[in-house]
């Protein structure tokens, strides 16, 4: 099986707190750590663990954090192919509170690869599935050469003008930053996650199928990366030949397991 991700990376500083500070309040960190994350990176690591390998086409800042991101993702089992950018690496600051919810502040613009970047785009034609989180229209069209193409609504600014047929579009029903917008042609399926309520798989003809949330295999620790792990599990299942109705079940399991670890990589399906 060959799987790939076309997308972005954020260098993330995590801070565990009792609660997210109210305006003007000072809170004390209980724990801190840093690692490369963001939707593209998290999905690539989960796919590498599921499939044994994952090609990740991305763009990174040509600075210390950008190079460290590439190095640490390689150490996590991902094959990273990078277009280096002159601007600083995009970063994020994440509060993780006592009920495992994450609150994110992003610093810098999202960096995705461009279709004219010198990256191994031709390898995507051999991929069983690709997950897309960031890039330009040409990058998305290159990703469409794969047998299955999954994307997130966070890439709407590219999905709308590119006019590429998606097999599955993934969005969170609870996140205002992941609103569904009309695409032409419409995706074959839209997978709408809804946290502990499970989610809904909507076909292009309007047929909706609910799925149940997967039970957490342990206490909830950190919600960061659960949605991206869901998308990776879904992508892997599609690559394996499973139907979208069955694919969301593996996605839900990956998301649930992710929530039981610190950060997006400590607990994941392997």
Quick structural overview:
This protein is of the alpha/beta class and 270 residues long. 25% of the residues lie in helices and 27% in strands. The mean pLDDT is 96.
Describe the 3D structure.
This protein has 270 residues and is α/β, with parallel strands linked by helices. The protein has one domain (3-21, 29-258): UDP-N-acetylmuramoyl-L-alanine:D-glutamate ligase, CATH 3.40.1190. It has helices at 39-51, 64-75, 137-143, 156-162, 226-239, 244-258; strands spanning 3-7, 10-16, 31-37, 55-61, 79-85, 91-96, 102-107, 129-132, 149-152, 168-172, 189-193, 199-203, 208-211. The strands form 2 sheets. It has a 9-stranded mixed β-sheet, sandwiched between helices. Strand 9 (149-152), helix 4 and strand 10 (168-172) form a beta-alpha-beta unit. It is globular. It starts with a strand and ends in a 12-residue tail after the last helix.
| Low-pLDDT segments, ≥5 res | none
Kindly report the average pLDDT value: 96
State the strand order across the main sheet. 5-4-1-8-9-10-11-12-13
CATH architecture: 3-Layer(aba) Sandwich
List the helices and strands and how they pair.
Blueprint: E1 3-7, E2 10-16, E3 31-37, H1 39-51, E4 55-61, H2 64-75, E5 79-85, E6 91-96, E7 102-107, E8 129-132, H3 137-143, E9 149-152, H4 156-162, E10 168-172, E11 189-193, E12 199-203, E13 208-211, H5 226-239, H6 244-258
